[in-house]
Amino acid sequence: MKPQIKIILSNFFFEYETPRQVLVRNKKVAVACRIIQMGVLGYIIGWVFMYEKGYHAIDTAIGSVFTKMKGVSLTNISGEERIWDAADFVFPEQGASSFVVMTNYIATVGQQQDKCPENQSFYTLLFPYGIMSLSGQMTGRCISNTSTCEIYSWCPVEDDRQIPDPAILLTSENYTLFIKNSITFPHFNVVRSNLVESVNQSYINTCLYHPKTDPLCPIFRLGDIVELSGFSFSEIARLGGAIGLLIDWDCNLDLSIRHCEPKYEFYGLYGTGRNDKEKPSLGYNFRYAKYYVEKGVEKRTLMKVFGVRIDIIVNGRAGKFDIIPTLTAIGSGVGIFGVATVVCDLLLLHFVTKKDFYKNMKFKHTEIPEEVKTQDGSRDT
């Protein structure tokens, strides 16, 4: 065992290999070599340079989004008419990139802090320091005519067992959303807005986004946003849901800056989709209260709001010619060309019928003769 290890180490440290060029006239191997080389060349030109643009230096965008919702709805509940505008149905109202548009609600009017029967649909929880109802503090009394416990809470207690169907604000599908998006590519010192050169004031006054006829219009109909995301508006309006609106910038700065334009994409993130009916806890809702004082008593109107949550996401990527990534891509491609040589050598040395002949032609073992001194002092080899 030791002599073998010694031989291996000796060969490793004291032998040197140098390439030897051998011209082989074998049609099968030659054709295989050219096919592999053409495949590598196609990969470099088609994928690396044309599709992935490997000659580009890349920068990602920093962006901001401003939104403005417009629309009016008229409701008539129990003979009481009311007008709803953007100040009533948009939360929050500052024009952020993430907001909720109310499409349905349950209102509990005239609540005040008092003792009242608990709602039968609520459960009680056992805490270390006593029993707590989900809607208030239990007093320890039972109410016989309702078969529930008495609680100290905001009374009357909200009853949300019956969700309005169809949605109260079903006309909200005609609300319009205006989006103003600005981005910058700091590495290239480029600033762009979704209000590109072809989007002027006269165009904005008349346009409405359509993926084919008006793909650059920054005004969107709420019903279209929901439908393009894959949801049914009548379903999502009743229980609520979440939608992602992606503004995608993919800019080639080797071309005119006018070609750097946004693309809008819509994704249904969560809601009452057509295939979601068996899922638990569908929809999106939250509560808020409007407080007021009546005859010296603090009261409130509790609103359970169902709505469409819209999250606007900006994704920006720009590329421009740069010599460093270009040379890197070329160097990588040249290295990949070596695959053809490796494959063809395997074929020659292990699979063709004259493999032993090719091995003798491929490899030549030589030793440098050592010099020996003769008697007259001259050197002989």
Brief descriptors of the model:
381 residues; alpha+beta; 9 helices; 19 strands; disulfide bond; transmembrane helix; receptor
Overview of the structural elements:
This protein is an alpha+beta fold and 381 residues long. It is 25% helix and 39% strand. The chain contains nine helices and 19 strands. The chain has helices at 2-14, 27-51, 86-89, 201-206, 222-228, 233-239, 323-336, 338-350, 355-362; strands at residues 56-60, 62-70, 73-77, 80-84, 90-91, 98-117, 124-127, 130-133, 136-143, 148-155, 176-185, 190-193, 219-221, 241-252, 262-270, 285-294, 297-321, 372-373, 379-380. The strands form four sheets. Strands 1, 5, 6, 7, 8, 9, 10, 14, 15, 16 and 17 form an eleven-stranded mixed beta sheet that branches. Helix 2 runs antiparallel to helix 7 (323-336), helix 2 (27-51) packs antiparallel against helix 8 and helix 8 crosses helix 9. The chain is elongated. The two termini are 34 Å apart. The mean pLDDT is 85. The chain crosses the membrane at residues 29-50, 330-352. Receptor for ATP that acts as a ligand-gated ion channel.
